[in-house]
What does this fold into?
Amino acid sequence: MTAVAVSDRARTGRRAALLSAVIVVQTLCAIFFLGDVIGDLVGDGQFEGPHKWVEIVAGLAMVGGVAFLIFELRRVMNRVAILENATRAAQGEMADVIEAFFDEWNLTASERDVALLMLKGIENDEIARIRGTASGTVRAQGAAVFRKAGVDGRPQLFSIFMEELLAGE
It folds into this structure.
């Protein structure tokens, strides 16, 4: 998952939590105002004076606000679901794109492993340790990947996939 996607998802999650908290507070306020109006009506049965009308309007505004916030929270939660689906799709599509290039370049299984670890930003010595091979073997397999891909090094290899990702359809 990219840093932008993580940041957008975190921001959306915070927004959902804030909306939930505001909904709870506003619901409690609406219950208070409407309860006070009902209590006054039961007590004396009259709508005299501006105070009761202000409470009625405030209570109804709070109920309207709660309805709007619930709608907005649903919209935010749908956005989170869309972002998560898009992220999963992008990850799956990128894996397919990588495999297609590896197939086109006729990489061996070892070269595929090394190329994938290079794309993840792992250094040769670490790749050698992960794969249980010598650093020289990893360098040779990396050179074979670069030759078959027609690039001079990691930055150009990486740029092939970035261009494909950014090109879209």
Q: What stands out?
A: The chain has a mean pLDDT of 83. The radius of gyration is 30 Å. The chain has six helices and no strands. The chain has two domains: 1-91, 105-169.
